Amino acid sequence: MTAWQVDPVGAALRGENPAVLFRMRSGFAVFGETQFLPGYCVLLTDTPGADQLTDLPRPRRAEYLTDVGLLGEAVALVCGRRDAGFRRLNYETLGNSLPMLHTHVFPRYDWEPPELVPGPVWLYPVDRWKHPVYAAGPEHDGLRAELTAALREITAAAYG
């Protein structure tokens, strides 16, 4: 595990997290480390020590949840353009294994195995999460660029 993976928020605040796509009002839109569902992203809080949503003051919570929606909008736009099989988004705010506020935005597709479609993505076999063939890499640069451009456009319209 690299230094930025141990402390992704601190690394993002220092400009050292290479997964960051875009700086949002409440945190950082980051590209998922695995891309077996192309377009998978995460919103990381920019508030060190915030472990869960209720750790943020109410106005900041609203800002964070708005940013989750804006990130989802960008993922849906880009994934829908790139893949006719794009079906929907799943959002998950967990924090059980990574104790900091973050929300996963998973695109879901018609081409997924039928037995996995009705459940959460966590039911995918471990090899999808760990195998190097699914790891984010240079082959995803175009997708990263499209997501960043969509985030720039969507947040400009939303933030004014």
Folded structure, characterized:
By secondary structure, this protein is an alpha+beta fold. The protein has a single domain (3-159), classed as HIT-like (HIT family, subunit A, 2-Layer Sandwich). Helices cover 37% and strands 19% of the residues. It has a five-stranded antiparallel beta sheet with strand order 1-2-3-5-4. A hairpin with a 3-residue loop joins β1 and β2. α3 packs across α5.
Task: Provide a compact summary of the structure.
This protein is an alpha+beta fold and 160 residues long. The chain is 37% helix and 19% strand. The chain has one domain (3-159): HIT family, subunit A.
Helix count, per DSSP? 5
Any idea what the CATH superfamily is called? HIT-like
Q: Provide the gyration radius in Å.
A: 15 Å
Q: Could you give the order of strands across the largest sheet? A: 1-2-3-5-4
Q: Under the CATH scheme, which architecture would be assigned? A: 2-Layer Sandwich
Report the strand count.
Answer: 5
- The arrangement of helices and strands along the chain is HHEEEHEEHH
User: Tell me, what is the CATH class?
Assistant: Alpha Beta
Question: What structural category arises from helix and sheet content?
Answer: alpha+beta
Question: pLDDT below 50 for ≥5 consecutive residues: which ranges?
Answer: none
